[in-house]
What does this fold into?
Amino acid sequence: MVAAALAAWPALAAPAFASALFWPAGLALAVLGASLLAGRPQGPAWALALLGAIYLLSLLLRGAALDEWAPLYAAGLLLTAELAYLSFELARPARFEAAFLARRLAWSGLLVLVALALAAAVMLVAAVPVPGSLGLTALGVAAALAAVALVGARARLFT
Amino acid sequence: MTLSVSPKLGAYLGLAGLGLLGGLLTGRAELVALAAPFLAALWLGLALARRPEVRLRLVAERERALEGEEVAVSLELAPSLGLPRLDVELELPPGLEPVQRPNLTVLHLSAARTLRLRLRCRRWGVHELGVVHLRAADRLGLLFHETVLDRRLPLRVYPRPEPLRALLKPLETQASAGNEVARSRGEGIEFADIRPFVPGDRVRRVNWRVSARRGELHVNDLHPERNADLVIFLDSFTEVRRGDRSSLDLAVRAAAALAGRYLERRDRVGLIGFGGTLRWLEPAMGLRQLYRIVDALLDTEIALSYAWKGIEVIPVRTLPPKALVVALSPLLDERAVTALLDLRGRGFDLAVVELSPLPFVESGGSEVEQLAYRLWRMEREALRHRYQRMGVPVAVWDEGAPLVAALEEVRSYRRYARLYRG
It folds into this structure.
């Protein structure tokens, strides 16, 4: 349901291009559904990437300056991903204790709230009128690389 | 512990990278906003992840069980740190199955706790429990730590007892006191005959009524109660199997039931496992002998061998004179068939319980297959007649029928054979 809302959103936000956005959105939903049914954990990533691309396309087509609903869309994407991967885990032939499921759902909910706040913070920073420059762009690239590197470094601790 | 990365981690990393790259290329902050939650999830998940350590102790409710019974097994788990997710799977040998499926349990382990599983013993044997697969994951399921712990825990599952009301009587009894009425005459309870008094007879055995009628002293003759020697001859050269049922299962079940019942009557019971591996237990009496026999039966297996073996390989003391030999065999291997004929040839009191292979064999669909099947059945009939001509009763025992029915068949054969001889 969350995925369907996310698929419908770009078309609703840009009604003039609804027909152009409808088919890729349907494809994203089909990929997600098929991967869930087939038990392929690689599928949701492709479906989410496609949904993100449709969202970007909608932004470009309607020429919006800054979409204030982006944090909600981002939180929706993360919620879809969390639920999709949880359903893969639940599909395993196992007895799941209620305590485990309750905690897992609580953590997913908390994560979505954090994601919402973080995406809103990103949008707030982006809304600050700062004149663009090469240095600022370089800083942005460096920040992005640093963020990915931090995650990588954290993951290396375990390997 | 072996570390593995979940597909979720790769997906989140890819989506975050794609979002950041897209944002930089297109200059759209929305894409960075889409990427940020995935990056945050990765950071949070990895920051909270810890290398797990779990101590495990495996305790079974008991060490011995009967076929078909349930046994509770406790897995005592003690983590050094709280584990948001732990998958526990106890690997089960083929003879055991979990009462509740599936066998894999996913739990939240914040402190030491005990996980209880109930297992059903499907087949007799010595089953080694103890291989436990553990998989711990962090709160968001990004990294998995897997390990396999081996806590050896043998569980001995004894064959299901077959109800036996009547047993085979041996032709000859032994010298010790027991529950079997001997054919000979002596001190006992069972009346045998009346004969004239001879010096040395006890006065209490004088039959006064007959003595008064005949005018001279007559005494009652009695049958003494003696024990018997039983040797169970278990043919383990070959078995016929279909699914989880086999002729060896029947043999072991029958052997355990016979040993139990004869030992209850203070008879001496021995065992010969005649097959690829020769195993034997000399006849003895008592509860200890019962445990010895059942433990030996649990270790019985079909060992493939092409070596010819005759009864000369069996130690002499294992086959005492006047012993009743009960053979449990599917009568498929020529070596076992010949050994039984040899036993009879050497004068042993022999009875054969044939563990019918027919329920395990299909006749086949084609005409040739059906012809071969009929020929095979006729050959088996001929073999049975061969035994019977030598005075050896052969009773067929199928899984569905009670063992006592097969024994009754042997008893009636022996009864009529004796009448004919008489």
Remarks:
- DSSP finds eight helices and 22 strands in chain B.
- The first helix of chain B runs from residue 7 to 26.
